[in-house]
Specification:
Chain A: Keywords: ATP-binding, Cell inner membrane, Cell membrane, Membrane, Nucleotide-binding, Transport. Chain A: One of its GO terms (cellular component) is plasma membrane. Chain A: Pfam families: ABC_tran. The structure holds two protein chains of two kinds. By secondary structure, chain A is of the alpha/beta class. Chain A is about 35% helix and about 25% strand. In chain A, the strands form two sheets. A six-stranded mixed sheet of chain A has the order 6-7-8-3-9-10, sandwiched between helices. In chain A, strands 2-1-4-5 form a four-stranded antiparallel sheet, covered by helices on one side. Chain A has helices at about 50-60, 80-85, 95-100, 105-115, 120-135, 150-165, 180-200, 210-215, 235-240, 245-250, and strands at about 5-15, 25-35, 40-45, 65-70, 75, 90, 170-175, 200-205, 220-225, 225-235. Chain B is α/β, with parallel strands linked by helices. Chain B has ten helices and 13 strands. Chain B has helices spanning about 45-55, 80-90, 110-115, 130-140, 150, 160-175, 190-210, 220-225, 245-250, 255-260, and strands spanning about 1-15, 20-30, 35-40, 60-65, 65-70, 75, 90-95, 180-185, 210-215, 230-235, 235-240, 310-315, 315-320. Chain B has an eight-stranded mixed sheet, sandwiched between helices. In chain B, a hairpin with a 2-residue loop joins strand 1 (about 1-15) and strand 2 (about 20-30). The chains are: A alpha/beta, B alpha/beta. The interface between A and B is medium-sized, with 33 and 37 residues.
Chain lengths: ~260, ~325
């Protein structure tokens, strides 16, 4: 089985100034490795400050790693090739309402994405937008709406549309399901599962909700203070965690 | 003893488009020592009800109720000062987003000391300062903060969300309230801290007999930690009853959908299988459907549903639906 993305020994540290001359380094990630195949879901769990979001930022190329490599379909990923890879890995933010431009219509937002990353003509873009909206269960007229005219669940769909319009291979969901209401969350989870079956999309799910992880993730990675503790199949990690911290985390599910 | 007894609570807001009824005839009752959960989606009026109980709603809201009893006294018919006195003595609330609801300009020690009422302090007036500080430290220990010296001197922004939440609880229990309202206490927290917090709330309930009203949108956590449950949808109370029976035999389609959408309550659900979800989304307050507000999304809605269903009772299980899922009609 070929891996879509493979991460080997990824490390990242931040420098912080302390006083006028001295600085101290904060180790955000140290020596994290994992791989993800098409059609699979990897969940990354851990508390705040465990380096979850740093990992996501490194993968999409917002930040450069100190050491280690990211292989995308066997090829090394560089920050400099951002233009080449940005349509393969897409990122969805926590709060859909705040990550969309309130001054632009949905169609314009989607047009911009296509204009910057593809060479499609206007008509082709229009067709692509119509297809994507349909895929996500939105109507064509929704393109003329502004973000504030949507409800929470629909906004999350629009955010998904913005990510999926470039036909990515990997979707990073950074706490994207946390803020949703239960019935809307079930809708979005269904949508994600359906898309995965249809298109073989791989998800990197960064979340705190362990119960959801157990339902939809194939593999789980437990991060704690930048170090990966447990990594393996979800059922194995949940039933038989190796480290003290993971054990505590898994036990907390019972409350 | 019945602590809180609210009948037909209605909260209305007048807007340029007319009156908006955000909470529509909700009943709520709490016994002494009871832990009640209040579940609903965002915008269903959970927080509004909590604020109405605390009496801190903005004056633009019109609060009306047939009965709004606290320990047998109707709060709405009392003069304002009397009302404030009773509420501040007996009811405490833990607000959403703890780090934002504390004063950012003064250290924790001062804020916590302020929350301790005089009549709970021993000693004469010149010893008050000393006892107040001592009690603040004791409160911090009680909520599980060991390093009290560092916490008392820091400002809210210097502390993590979990610690802030614990301090909020310390402030709330400082006056040993009879009722503690916890409004979404776990949304900002990690799952390990969540577990700690629920243990803490449960211990107050058991040791001191404090009643707790737990407000949340996550059914699974509420179900684990409560005795009774009320389910709200769009400002209407759809179902209320014992948590266990309600989860086992939901009578209202919304409760049913809510339970089925949680993978944890569905042991037969296969890995990566589709979850059960109602189609459509929650209506906005400006465009509420008439009658039963679930109507347009309900799988078994019929013509009668344009009339608001009455609140019916089956033993201790209350529901408001013309066509309950099981029971009644079959019997």
């Amino acid at each position: 089985m070929s891996n879509l993305i493979e991460v080997r020994g990824l490390s990242k540290s931040y420098q912080k100034a302390r006083g006028m001359f001295s600085r101290h380094t904060v180790l955000a990630l140290s020596n994290v490795s994992f791989s993800l195949a098409a059609g699979q879901t990897l969940a990354i769990v851990g508390e705040t400050g465990s380096g979850k979001s740093t990992l996501a930022k490194l993968l999409v190329g917002i930040e450069q790693p100190d050491s280690g490599e990211i292989l995308l379909a066997g090829q090394q990923l560089n920050c400099a090739d951002y233009q080449k890879t940005n349509h393969l890995i897409r990122y969805i933010f926590q709060d859909a309402a705040r990550s969309l431009d309130p001054n632009q219509k949905i169609a314009n937002i989607l047009h911009d994405v296509l204009r910057y990353s593809t060479v499609l003509s206007f008509e082709q873009r229009e067709r692509k937008i119509a297809d994507t909206l349909k895929l996500l269960g939105l109507l064509n007229e929704h393109g003329n709406y502004y973000p504030h005219m949507f409800s929470g669940g629909q906004l999350q769909r629009v955010a998904l549309a913005r990510a999926l319009i470039l036909d990515p291979k990997i979707l990073i969901l950074d706490e994207a399901l946390t803020a949703l209401d239960p019935s809307l969350r079930a809708q979005i989870v269904n949508l994600l599962l359906e898309l995965q079956q249809k298109t073989g999309l791989a998800y990197l799910l960064i979340t705190n909700q362990l119960r959801l992880v157990r339902h939809i993730a194939d593999q789980t990675l437990v991060l704690h203070k930048g170090i990966s503790l447990d990594y393996g199949d979800t059922s194995a990690v949940f039933e038989n965690p190796q480290h003290e911290y993971s054990r505590k985390l898994m036990k907390s599910i019972e409350y | 003893m019945q602590l809180l007894d609210i009948r037909n609570l209605t909260l209305e807001l007048s807007t340029p488009d007319g009156m908006i009824r955000a909470v529509d005839r909700v009943n709520l009752s709490l016994k002494e020592g009871e832990v009640r959960g209040l579940v609903g989606e965002s915008g269903s009026g959970k927080s509004l009800i909590a604020k109405a109980i605390m009496g801190v709603l903005h004056e633009r809201w019109k609060v009306s109720a047939d009965r709004f009893n606290w320990c047998g006294q109707d709060l709405l018919r009392l003069p304002y000062h009397e009302q404030r006195r009773i509420i501040s003595r007996d009811i405490a609330m833990i607000y959403q987003e703890p780090s934002r609801s504390m004063d950012p300009t003064s250290p924790i020690g001062e804020q916590l000391a302020e929350a301790i009422p005089d009549h709970l302090l021993e000693g004469s007036w010149w010893q008050r300062g000393y006892y107040r500080k001592k009690r603040a430290i004791a409160l911090l220990h009680k909520v599980g903060i060991r390093d009290h010296a560092a916490v008392l001197n820091s400002y809210p922004y210097q502390l993590s969300e979990g610690v802030c939440q614990k301090i909020m609880i310390a402030m709330a229990i400082a006056k040993s309230p009879k009722l503690l309202i916890a409004d979404e206490p776990t949304t900002a927290l990690e799952s390990t801290t969540q577990a700690q917090l629920f243990r803490l709330l449960a211990s107050f309930n058991q040791l001191k007999g404090t009643s707790i009203l737990l407000i949340s949108h996550e059914l699974e956590t509420v179900a684990r930690n409560t005795d009774t449950l009320s389910v709200l949808y769009c400002g209407q109370l759809v179902e209320a009853g014992d948590t266990a029976t309600l989860l086992k035999h939901p009578l209202h389609p919304y409760t049913h959908a809510l339970i089925k959408s949680v993978p944890e309550f569905q042991p037969d659900l296969g890995f990566k299988q589709q979850l059960y979800a109602l189609h459509g989304s929650i209506p906005t307050l400006q465009h509420l459907p008439i009658g039963c507000r679930l109507g347009p999304r309900c799988p078994n809605a019929r013509k009668e549903c344009v009339k608001t269903p009455l609140f019916e009772r089956q033993q201790n299980h209350y529901f408001s639906c013309h066509f309950p899922l099981s029971g009644k009609t079959n019997e």
